[in-house]
Write a structure and sequence with these properties.
The chain is of the alpha/beta class. It is 37% helix and 20% strand. Helix 8 links the parallel strand 5 and strand 6.
Length: 259
């Protein structure tokens, strides 16, 4: 039976091999992270904490889906040892010392969501300090987030190995996200254009495709160098397309390697 840990004291009495940080509303994508974690160590703990610091929009925070009982079941099915479900006062017991995301935190997602990545890094660093895992697993769907977490670990010389996992998609190739639960069936059909755009021969073709689809509002679509997060040069070897936009008010993002 999966253990539910709410006390920081109970958390610190055990040693953890792997941490899978989440905000709940678990889906098959999260389960893939847990399963990957089981290959890295026996004791896998999944944190569930909806972090207020990373929401620049109060309504988005209030509308974020919550399904704790279902989360427990999904985590247990995937092989998790425990769920860590802390209160806000556990995560932020005093004055919050925010971790600045730097220049990469101010572009793309960071430009559209000011302060978002500072909030992400602050809570992830706090979770690392509390759980002290050997490994932490993150999905590639939030690629800018993954890049910045790796950079933070390197900058602070944290004793945790960051493991990235491929994006999990549904049968229509829509990247799985907790926010997908807010999409209607018709919205999901519109959202299929995101992956279609990522598979075009060039950005111009992708933009033309996106412009033809009613109901999708593009924020950005760019080719970046994975190693620096700068815009990719024509001869860059580590290109990745990143995209974000809205479908019926729901923000969606995705990315794909440029072959």
């Amino acid at each position: 039976m999966i253990e539910v840990i709410k006390s920081v004291d109970d958390l610190s009495r055990q040693k953890w091999d792997v941490l899978v940080p989440t905000m709940g509303a678990l889906h098959a994508g999260h389960q893939s992270l847990i399963k990957l974690g089981k290959n890295l160590g026996e004791k896998v703990i999944v944190s569930i904490f909806v972090n207020p610091l990373q929401f620049e929009n109060k309504a988005d925070l209030e509308n974020y889906p919550k399904s704790f009982d279902q989360d427990l079941q999904m985590a247990q099915e995937a092989g998790a040892t425990a769920i860590f479900s802390p209160s806000e006062s556990d995560i932020y017991p005093g004055q919050i010392e925010k971790i600045e995301a730097g220049s990469v935190g101010d572009i793309f997602e960071g430009k559209s969501r000011p302060g978002h990545f500072s909030g992400v890094l602050t809570v992830v660093k706090r979770l690392f300090d509390l759980v002290n895992p050997k490994h932490a697993v993150f999905g590639e769907k939030d690629f800018q987030q993954l890049f910045l977490i790796k950079k933070m670990v390197n900058d602070f010389k944290l004793p945790v190995n960051i493991v990235s996992a491929p994006t999990i998609r549904d049968s229509s190739n829509l990247a799985l996200s907790s926010r997908n639960s807010r999409l209607s069936d018709e919205d999901k059909k519109v959202a299929q254009v995101i992956y279609q755009a990522l598979t075009q021969n060039n950005i111009d073709d992708a933009r033309k495709l996106l412009e033809k689809v009613d109901g999708f509002s593009l924020d950005y679509l760019e080719a970046i160098d994975e190693q620096s997060f700068n815009l990719a040069t024509p001869d860059a070897k580590n290109k990745r397309l990143i995209i974000a936009g809205w479908v019926n008010g729901v923000r969606l993002l995705d990315n794909a390697v440029v072959e």
